[in-house]
Amino acid sequence: MQKKWIAAGTAALVFMCTAAGAYAGANLKPIKAFLNPSMKFQVNGQPFQPQNDNGAVLAPIVYNNTTYLPVRSMSKALGVAIDYNQQTNTIYLGEKAEGVSVAGTFSGDFRTKDPQLTTYGDKDYKDVFFNNSSGTRGASFMLYPKGKYTKLYLQVAAVGKDVEEIFVQDADTDIKLKIGTVAVSEGIKTFEVDISGVNDLFVHADVKSGGSLFVPLTTSFYK
């Protein structure tokens, strides 16, 4: 119901951007509107107050008998991913049509672009997380989608030994969003993870002695 509501109400939303230059070159028209700070909100039965990214309270705008709400604040309240492309002056709500590589949001050790380590099977993935350390261990890294995406498609391969547990966790709430296994015989395996409204992700796998974890960053992507 939440996603249907936000889709139906998109036409009645106004994008609040704090950067003064964000509207440069846009077709802006002056209007006479009113702020309505007395309007109250509830989301899923709980009181909700729209705020900007700095925590300042935002009031709805009333224009021509239509109430306009701050889209970024409402998208966060409803768990709907949002992003803005300044060059095309386009707001993206929900899943994007094209995938975006996770490489730009990766943080952690064992990242490599060495062709001797980035090749799996017959393909060179160019940029990978490859934990080939010794002993039984945890292999982990961080991803930072910053609430811009709805889905994560994470590709993983177990090398040498099966991975009996791998999980993707919301780093802010410690809620595990996906738990699975990866067998050597499966080759490159893709996990689809719902990450709507999630800012920071913790990815962790338990790797056995003699085994390695291979994660191609160029073909793992957000939507």
From TrEMBL:
User: What are the record keywords, sorted?
Assistant: Signal
Leader sequence segment:
1-22
Ranges of residues in domain Copper amine oxidase-like N-terminal: 58-95
Superkingdom per UniProt: Bacteria
Name this protein carries in UniProt: Copper amine oxidase-like N-terminal domain-containing protein
Question: Which species is this record about?
Answer: Paenibacillus spiritus
What is this organism's lineage? Answer: Bacteria, Bacillati, Bacillota, Bacilli, Bacillales
